[in-house]
Design brief:
about 120 residues, single chain, disordered C terminus, four-stranded antiparallel β-sheet
Length: about 120
C-alpha cells in the first residue's frame, strides 16, 4: 500500500515538474531543470536590473507569488529565484498565470522605457 502511495505521489510531482518547466519555457525564462527536488531554480530576466531579492519582492507584492531569492542559498544565486511545485496543481497553474502576466508586463514596461530613451 505504501509503495503504491509513493508511486502515485512521484507521478503527481513529475506531472507538476513537467508542467512548470514547459510553462517557464513558454514564458521565455531560463531555468535549471530540477534533479530530484520539488523546486525550479529560475534566472531573472536580463532586462531586470536589480537582484533576485528585489525581483522576489516585486513578485510577492505585484503578482502575489511567493518565491525565494537564490541568494538565500548561495552567493551565485543573486540572479535566480526558486519556485516550488510542492503545491496543488490549481495553485501552480494560478502562479504560472500570474508569473506570465508579470513577466510580460515587466518586459513591456522595459521596452517602452527603452523607446522613450531613444
Amino acid at each position: 500500500m505504501a509503495i503504491l502511495l509513493l508511486n502515485e505521489m512521484k507521478k503527481v510531482y513529475l506531472q507538476k515538474r513537467k508542467y512548470l518547466c514547459k510553462e517557464l519555457q513558454k514564458i521565455g525564462l531560463e531555468f535549471v531543470p530540477p534533479q530530484g527536488t520539488f523546486y525550479v531554480y529560475v534566472r531573472i530576466p536580463t532586462t531586470f536590473e536589480k537582484d533576485a531579492a528585489v525581483y522576489a519582492d516585486k513578485l510577492a507584492h505585484e503578482a502575489l507569488i511567493a518565491v525565494i531569492p537564490g541568494s538565500a542559498f548561495e552567493a551565485a544565486g543573486s540572479r535566480y529565484f526558486r519556485i516550488s511545485y510542492a503545491v496543488s496543481m490549481e495553485k501552480l497553474q494560478l502562479a504560472v498565470q500570474r508569473l506570465t502576466v508579470f513577466v510580460h508586463n515587466t518586459a513591456a514596461d522595459k521596452s517602452h522605457i527603452q523607446e522613450v530613451r531613444k
